[in-house]
Amino acid sequence: MRPVFARAAIPRVPPNDVMPPDADRLARVDAILQRHGADRTHLVEILREAQEPEGWLPPEVITRIARAVDLPRARVEGVAGFYSMLHLEPAGRYRIRFADNITDRMQGSEALLDRMCESLWVEQGKTSEDGLVSIARTSCIGMCDQGPALLVNGRAIPRLDTARIDRIAELVRAPTALDAWPPDLFVVEDNVRRPDRILSAAFAPGEVIRATLARGAGPALEEIKRSNLLGRGGAGFTTGIKWQTTRDSPGEERYVVCNADEGEPGTFKDRVLLARHADMTIEGMTAAAYMIGSRRGFIYLRGEYLHLREPLLETLARRRAANLLGKDILGTPGFELDVELRMGAGAYVCGEATALLESLEGKRGIPRNKPPRMAEKGFLKLPTTVNNVETFCGAALIMLHGADWFRAVGTSKSSGTKLLSVSGDCARPGIYEYPLGVTVQQVLEDCGAERTQAVQVGGPSGTCVSANEFRRRLAFEDLETGGAFMVFDESRDLFEIARHFAHFFAHESCGFCTPCRVGTSLLRNCMDKLHEGKGSQHDLDRILRLNRVLKASSHCGLGQSACNPLVDTLKRFRPAYERRLQSFEFEPAFDLDGALARARAMTGRDDPGAHLRETENG
Ligand code: SF4
After folding, report:
1. Residues 219, 117: one domain?
2. Angle separating helix axes 537-553 and 514-531, nearest 10 degrees
3. Shortest-distance Cα residue to atom 4 of ligand 1
4. Which ligand 1 atom lies nearest to the CA of residue 559?
5. Is the CB of 367 inside a 6 Å radius of any atom of ligand 1?
6. What is the CATH number of the domain that holds 50?
7. CB–CB of 65/33 below 8 Å?
8. Tens of pLDDT along 210-257?
9. Would you say the CB of residue 550 lies under 6 angstroms from ligand 1?
10. Which domain holds residue 337?
11. pTM for the whole thing?
């Protein structure tokens, strides 16, 4: 039953209270532009900062920025319109966005969202009349181990329950400035359940750099190659080869980029690595920079991890002060690297490395054509290596302990350990680190999962495995994974889970190429049709046909993998689909008879005698 709320009067907040006069607003924007040197490659960052005070980007702010960075206004507006965290329309002073991963729903996020909407008198997806608050949903925010969760003005609040929702509603109604909200609301736990080589590593800052310098750039790179370190973001490319290509490619500059934009629903391991092992990540980047000859690096952090921004900036500043970044690092003439932190602004597709580089250049995150490879023409068309947070951590440990130590665990094809983000139906969700090759069954036992029906390995774009496959191994030669491990017990409806993922891909498609833009919408519609009991065998065949089209003709991995969760569940859990079919033959999605019922009633045409009487009356 829905909770009944005492409808406390919500104070009216005139918009003018938060709208500075134009001159003040533009002076503030000018200060932001000056800080960024009006550099158009900083455009996403500039827009994020310009939006902060008011929660949206008024037209004159867009115009001012466009003039300053010397870009057409439409281009700047196009960039702002691309990212879900940037707004071109007024939003509430408090912008509340509920995480909408399937695990959040399983933990009751829908009822909590309803409760907050009722409490604050605002409809989901809308802004309250007084401009105080807007409430919406957003994709996974990387808190699946402690959901349900939400973002308020970009700051994460995990572990939601009715008490927390009521507290938040009260703070909004007061209204209390966000900085004065109780700090306990914003505590994000690490939930490390099983540490192994990476999560238990301890070394003094600078040790990895010293070990790399002692080896020399060429031999250090050979050691990375010998370790067979494969990219941990999911693609599994050989790190040593990528770094060698970057080193060998001609260019005045080379760049090293850490992809910390983990947006795959169900993944949150990089959140924990950056919270606990930021030094290890940056040491790995610095070692990579030494090997490939780079002087400039970036950490591209997903916008949803705003709570990590300040600690990371402090770590970078501390390392600069200790001469672990900057010029002549550790007294080595000519060894120079600075690392800049850049924030994403809410676009799943930016986890794709070329889309990430577009975003870093201040553009919409549209994946690029390949070739050329990023190692040859990456950031600003110069040689660039992009690696996941966990890959840099692995490289750091290889520099300390050597390739043989690294290869001593894992399988012959998949060396080292892998971090898993475990969530869903289990007693102990959190981060688990295992040697690669661990079975699904072992992870399920360790995390306290019971009566498990299926596991989604690698997020929606990965693989859904059923109980008879739990002996399979998490390794590049079997079940590849970027780290997500979502558990579903026997009480879950696998069709509804797949439908949720179909909505996710339709929402996150960047719209650049037709097969993905149209195909993901058709898939979503098809799943909705089945959900409404209007589907037929024809729709099941259609999903498989769309899969072939999307795989063959989508521009990037998002479109190519959008059908994976549907095809996997259709193959393994077909009865979940078939019990929704009204018939095996064609069923129209549109109910013509139902749609005309009201008109028939109004004209009396549902009355069987009406036609006869009309005829008799002449
Ligand atoms: Fe964008 Fe989808 Fe095409 Fe990738 S496949 S470029 S996400 S429309």
Report:
1. no
2. 160
3. 556
4. 5
5. yes
6. 1.10.10
7. yes
8. 999 999 999 999 999 999 999 998 788 999 999 999 999 999 999 999
9. no
10. 197-407
11. 0.91
